[in-house]
Design goal:
mainly beta, Porin, 2 domains, three-stranded antiparallel beta sheet, 13% helix, 49% strand
Length: 293
């Protein structure tokens, strides 16, 4: 009799489970206890809603713990580029109007959480500078050995400031720390937008060639390396869980000799202004590589 009761209870369970082919959706099921000769109800494990979103599960496995905007914690890399201007003894906004240069860089870093990341970068660029109006009006003259005079000097080659231009090749290698303001505001912390303040420290190298604008005759060339300190503002948008696009603008100040290698003559400005676009990709970790995702 006990055997028949047990067999009957099992048949009822199989019938209920096979009614629609999805027995796992039933939260409770009757089971006959042979020792107490009574029916008990066991609760089946709840479905895990997190496994329903396969794309998100694969992303978290490949890119680390989810931070915000779908862009996970962990390693990332990317590239950026844009326009470059400079202010030194000469200026990108000197004689002849604005003279835009260009710059580009590669970067790689690690995102610790939703609001903090650290990256290394390596950048190259160049820009064109011309004399400031005050120096041109003062008829300042530059000799071929880099000395400045108030008038032309007999026996020395050179040119008046107002007739000269300086082409500067730039190198910049350093560290940048990114703080996302939107990630610490409750109303925006889970959004796809980011607004970052990013201080930086770098080794700033410059190679300047000063020549006449008309004949392109070389007057003076020199280069130097110095400590660069600066910062920028970055706005980004997570278009995909693993890709972020954005724009930036920022300044890098040289702490040593002027980047155009010319005598300062009262002009203390010595900085580079860069603005452009930025593209960032998250890097899958070892877990995703082993699983073939």
């Amino acid at each position: 009799m006990k055997f028949l009761k047990s067999l009957t209870a099992s048949a009822i369970i199989l019938t209920l489970a096979g009614a629609d082919g999805r027995g796992s959706e039933y939260k409770t099921m009757p089971v006959y206890d042979r020792e107490t000769e009574s029916e008990v109800v066991e609760t089946a494990p709840e479905d895990n809603p997190e496994t329903e979103n396969i794309a998100e599960a694969r992303f978290e496995a490949g890119c680390g713990k989810k931070a915000r905007s779908g862009f996970g914690t962990g390693w990332y890399a990317g590239a950026e580029g844009g326009l470059a201007f400079a202010e030194s003894t000469f200026s990108s906004f000197g004689t002849g109007g604005a003279h835009a240069g260009g710059s580009g860089s590669l970067f790689a870093g690690y995102r610790f959480n939703g609001w903090l990341s650290l990256e290394v970068f390596a950048g190259l660029g160049g820009t064109r500078l011309t004399s400031r109006e005050c120096c041109s009006e003062a008829n300042l003259w530059l000799s071929k050995d880099g000395e400045q005079f108030r008038a032309a000097v007999l026996g020395k080659g050179g040119g008046y400031y107002g007739e000269l231009e300086s082409s500067v090749f730039l190198q910049n290698y350093g560290l940048r720390l990114n703080f996302d303001i939107l990630a610490i505001i409750p109303a925006t912390k889970d959004g796809k937008w980011s607004l970052e303040l990013a201080p930086a420290i770098s080794a700033l190298g410059s190679k300047a060639r000063t020549r006449t604008m008309a004949e392109k005759e070389s007057i003076f060339s020199a280069g130097n390396w110095q400590l660069g300190l600066g910062g920028r503002v970055q706005v980004g948008y997570a278009v995909l869980p693993w890709m972020n696009v954005g724009v930036f603008t920022g300044l890098t100040f040289g702490t040593g000799r002027h980047i155009d290698a010319l005598p300062a003559d009262g002009h203390k400005s010595n900085f580079i202004w860069e603005s452009g676009g930025r593209l960032t990709f998250s890097i899958p970790d070892k877990t995703s590589k082993k699983s073939g995702r």
